[in-house]
Amino acid sequence: MEETFDVKLVENEKYYSPPAGYREEAWTKDYETAYADFLKDPDGFWERVAKELDWFRLWDKVKEWNYPYAKWFVNAKLNITHNCLDRHVKSDRKNKVALMWKAETGEERMYTYWRLYRDVMRFANGLKKLGLKKGDRVCIYMPLVPEQIIAMLACARIGVVHSVVFGGFGANALNMRINDAQAKVVITADYTIRRGKNIPLKTIVEEAVVGSPSIEKIVVLSRKSETPVDLMKEIEVDFYGIMEGVDSYCAPEEMDAEDPLFILYTSGSTGTPKGIVHTCGGYMVGTYYTTKHVFDLKDKDRFWCTADTGWITGHSYVVYGPLAVGATVFMGEVVPDYPDPGCFWKLVEDYGITIFYTAPTAIRMFMKLGEEWPKKYDLSSLRILGSVGEPLNPEAFEWYYKNIGASRCPVVDTWWQTETGMHMITTMIGEKMRPGFAGKAVPGVKVDVVDKDGKPVPIGTGGLLVIQEPWPSMLRTVYGNDARYRQYWETVEGNYSAGDLAVKGKDGYIMVIGRSDDIIIVSGHNIGTAEVESALVSHQAVAEAAVIGKPDDMKGNSIKAFVILRVGNTPSEKLTSDLIYHVRMTLGPIAIPSEIEFVDKLPKTRSGKIMRRVLKAREMGLDPGDISTLEE
How far apart are the first and last CA of the chain? Predict the structure, then answer.
């Protein structure tokens, strides 16, 4: 690929000013001042954040940087669960609701910090009873239920490294992750619930562990069901059974700041999934800081991140970040359009959600279904909206801002990765918002858009998105494959290469275009897939779109588009012509699709990212490679 390209969308000069009062009341009251303070003394900046948390032993130095390896809070000792639980239980947050949970069946549960603390203590002692100790690995393969969070925190309590695997993966994907991490225990449930159906998990685990010699025990959560769970006594134990007869207190394992906290597998574009390793100290500080400052989270907020805990968004912004801050977190075993497309908005109304964080894929689905659904519910409790997972195109931003936020809620469009652990780019609360642009580097982070030699590209020109300095919650390695870790820092020497393309506007706002392999070269011109997709979605008939490049004898590549229409529109030759003309007028003749195929759905990862390589492989009759993250 070429390292730079022209981007038409930067001509969008539209801004939205923040609502009155937001800046004055925000934790970060002035972005420019906060960022300048960081640049003056980066280590001092992060030290001030870290001192808001509890440590068993403070650090000898904030950062030790031996390219491409970093250590943060060197020789400090801590336990992340002490900050997520103990320090709140010892304060006036003891009886504050930590976790609100609702299932699509109507079942609901509330956990105060005290109740969550007690259950984590007992389950941690139950894990000890199974013989687990510091440094062992545990695989968690569960539905989005409170017990999943209890299991994660219990592992962290005793220094066991958890590897959470999304509960929608099949046996082969689960087996690979178990074997790569050499997990001793799998924690699962008998089933998960999706769209009114019970989907078995225990049977998938039993199939997955057949070829997993490291597994010693399977812990099974038995949910309320007409059919009791039949446990194989040789290897399977009951989730609540291991909590019986244990002490009600489990002392936190003293962890070094650089001890591993968890392994999380991410597939990337190709190849075997990578086990991203995050450590205790820096990850805690980074997620605590960004939860508090990016979402401007206050003590009375009710925070709902719709991500599954099996993804990094769930780790950082359902579990560790919000609980470290002392938030009230809502989580639901729900999907956005079941039993009807008003499901999410009813939950916002019923639970008084104040901060709502979801994916552009979901936003575009809501757009497709129409604004009449959110209009049925009282969304006045909302004060901040967030977006995560992929670029938020301007049309989706506008719809979200106007129809969900009633043009009064700031939208924080966040860019970050499994590898970064925390938000890296966004528009901080109180700053003007620019649709299509995520924003600027979060104070504490240095990013830029560069060419392949690491030189900044001209304003308005696209290039490679890089992170220029280490940050606390950065990945430390790829489990069992440190050479793969070094590639992140060697692609653009001296920088962490995010693998994404971006453009920096004249105001310093950054638009993330998409993956660097999501570029189509047509007649020598580099066309960003996200740019063509955004042009298509800006047509009133289109809900979602994905484009790929196909080999072409004359042009090198031609563009094919896959389009999902909004309700009330039907495919026709006239509509195809209209869309081609619309793209031509929006981006120019070089970017028009040679083909448009109308489809009902697009292949996506379970975190909502469109898998264009799967579309391309199907189109070309090729093997799509690793599709373990593909949503069914």
Answer: 31
